[in-house]
Design a protein that fits this description.
By secondary structure, the chain is an alpha+beta fold. It has one domain: Alpha-Beta Complex (tt1808, chain A). Helices cover 25% and strands 28% of the residues. Strand 9, helix 3 and strand 10 form a beta-alpha-beta unit. The longest helix is centred in the first third of the chain and has 21 residues. The chain is globular and about 50 Å long. The relative contact order is 0.15.
Length: 189
């Protein structure tokens, strides 16, 4: 989730964001490029995606997305107009043009910590992004920490409180992804 702002002379739009090669989000009229992730965080995000994809297929409900999908949202008080989670699940109307961003927030978003996503500044940035997710309409956000080998689950019903899942436990994303569970041990073999 480490970010590097790209300078622009005018207010950027979702159309500008769609032309960016690489992962980025639109915040405050600026395209904010997101740093590539490392080996372990990418594998963890992949495990989440595969499990979500299998669940969506089995239930016939929702769609799982990998890293770099764009979710377009009406501008939030923070200025954010898009999200690009590390893995996500969406249970809503898809765009008529399959090449477009998803119109609305993810139902569930997983944010996997990268190498530089630790410390006070990173914690503040993660809390602000979670707040944006919930304001936009996301129901559940996972904060996945490969170093601590745990998953913190935040829900829109009580956004300031997390449920911690660790070794030997199964994390859930209720009510965003009904019936889905993922063993924390599968994320951190």
């Amino acid at each position: 989730m480490s970010i590097m702002p790209r300078s622009t002379t005018r207010r950027a739009t979702l159309a500008d964001l769609a032309r960016v090669s690489g992962k980025a989000e639109l915040i405050g009229g600026r395209i904010v490029e997101l740093m590539p992730t490392g080996h372990r965080p990418n594998l963890v995000a992949g495990e989440i995606f595969v499990s979500l994809k299998n669940h969506a297929r089995a239930t016939g409900r929702g769609v799982a997305f990998t890293d770099n999908i764009g979710f377009a949202v009406p501008e939030l008080p923070s200025g954010r107009e898009s999200f690009s989670p590390d893995a996500s699940y969406y249970d809503g109307p898809l765009p008529s043009n399959e090449m477009d961003f998803i119109p609305g927030p993810p139902t569930f978003a997983a944010e996997v910590r990268s190498k530089n996503d630790h410390g006070p500044a990173a914690e503040d940035a993660r809390a602000r992004k979670r707040e944006d997710y919930f304001l936009a309409g996301t129901l559940v956000v996972w904060d996945v920490d490969p170093l601590a080998r745990c998953v913190r689950v935040y829900r829109v019903s009580d956004p300031a409180t997390s449920t911690l899942f660790g070794k030997g436990e199964q994390a859930d994303a209720e009510p965003a992804v009904p019936g889905w569970r993922l063993a924390v041990d599968d994320l951190f073999p």
